Amino acid sequence: MKAQDDTSPAETLRGALRMDVPARADQLSVEEIVRRTGQGRLLLPRFQRPLSWDNADRRKLLDSIERGYPIGTLLFWRRPAIAGQGTTLVGAPAAPQQGDVDLIVDGQQRIVTLWDALGRAPEPGEQALGFEIPDGAFRYRRVPRSETNQPPARVGDHWFMPLHIALDATALSEWISAEMPRDVRRRFFDVGKRLREYKVAAYIVEGDDIEVLREVFDRVNTSGRSLTRDQVFDALVGSKVADGEDAGLALVNARLRDLAFGDLDHKVILNSFEAIRGDKIGKVDPRAIEASTVEADLLRTTNALRATILFLQHVADIPHGAVMPYELPVVVLARFFSLFPAPHERSLSLLRRWLWRGAIAQKLSGASSTLQQHVDDIVEGQEHGSVQSLLARTGQPGRVALREGKRFSAGTATIKMMLCAMLANRPRHLVTGELLLASEVFADGLDGALRPIAAPPDSGLANRLLHPSAGSPPLRLVEQCTDEAALLSHRVSLAAAEALRTGDVPRFLAERDATLRASIDPFLERHAEWDRGDEPPILALAARGAGL
């Protein structure tokens, strides 16, 4: 019997794809990569994935380069300079019309990071990546308008070198001051030299066949792992809906950025998209979605998520995505607000109870089956019945005391709920006294915003300050602050501050823990409203009694 051939037609086609000219290996210095980007000769092709690195990833890349660690290879597709082949990076000039350009097939995150850090001066108010002494670490620092052209070297008791100055040896020499200690000057010069001269392995692909390039991209980006659902969606469907640099799921985030809630995970946006359409979560094949409906559905998703975020910020007192305890409520609320864009005030109050009771009782963890059940509870035309179904699913867990685990972790749902309570105290800047915005606090992510005050660093939330860096360690910020109201806004009492100044860390931790607890428990009580009745509005009850 003839053996059965299980090779698919697609695999047969792929086997026929071959490069006329094999890819060639090269080495490019970081200085050369940034220079070509600044000439508009490094472009992003349309099929690239959205950026996903956070500030910690970017810092780690620069740290690896400075230490001489390998950072992987780059892959470029070299093409004659013809308009419309790809987009330049943010802040780079338009692509030239003569010579060659290189489309970035693999290495997008690394090249964007190098360009943003080394290739362009930050805009006023933007986070600048720099090298800090004495820590010897790469950190982000917000650049005030007055410092954009000539940032000072000293910030608090640290020396800080913005990396966009370090790339140009001449500019670095002019910037470095004779007032700096000799060891600081030498360290800055050494860091600049190591960054500029670091060599990155690169492959250059030449040819005209776009299908060969897509095949190379697919193999490079999926070897050993599968594309995530949101990446498949954007590649096949979302990329067809674009506005400038943003497309698909990234476009939803771009249109919500004015709310200063932080970007939503693309997985959450896609789940919301499916929930709003009435699809089963995680079961939709992007190839089966009509291209003509995608733009309208993405707009509906954007509008529903906008209503969701406004509810979270102004009704549920969850001001930023960094302190959202669970992702499940975002998807469920997006479906609710898509069906009921102007809900009854009572519905909003009951939804707040559902969210906080479920979060405190750990019933919103978001397993796929649990998420689908919650989404199915939201039924078109039944606003009050939908809310009651959600409350019934949470049940009446009774008053639950929220306590930290044995090992402190900022990313747990428990700590995030406690941080919501801390933010509800309207914390102030310990240097300027100004009200802190959540978007400012979490500019460097959750870990960057929540730093230990004193040793031992693993001693819990009482030993954490929720505050931007301000160029000084948390211990010094607290010790040097003389504004009693600003300290109390962080739940640092006068007794706690005095204990810290005198070196009595155990008493400081005990005092602050008691002050925090006296603030957190009432916050949770107000939002969960354990003892309140959950009846729908009187009008809804009357309609039910009349059989309407």
Structure commentary:
Helix content is 47%, strand content 11%. It has 548 residues and is α+β, with helices and mostly antiparallel strands. The chain has 3 domains: 20-226, no CATH class; 228-394, no CATH class; 413-527, no CATH class. The strands form 4 sheets. Strands 1-9-3-4-2 form a 5-stranded mixed beta sheet.
**Sheet with the most strands: spatial strand order:** 1-9-3-4-2
| Model regions low in confidence, pLDDT < 50 over at least 5 residues | 1-14
Range of strand content: 5-15%
Overall average pLDDT: 84
SS field, number of helical segments: 24
Termini separation: 69 Å
Largest sheet: 5 strands, mixed
Which structural class fits the helix and strand makeup? alpha+beta
Number of strands: 13
Number of domain modules: 3
Shape assignment:
flat
CA radius of gyration is 27 Å
| Residue share in helix | 40-55%
Task: Identify the notable features of this structure and list them briefly.
548 residues; alpha+beta; 3 domains; 13 strands
Brief write-up:
Helix content is 47%, strand content 11%. It has 548 residues and is α+β, with helices and mostly antiparallel strands. It folds into 3 domains: 20-226, no CATH class; 228-394, no CATH class; 413-527, no CATH class.
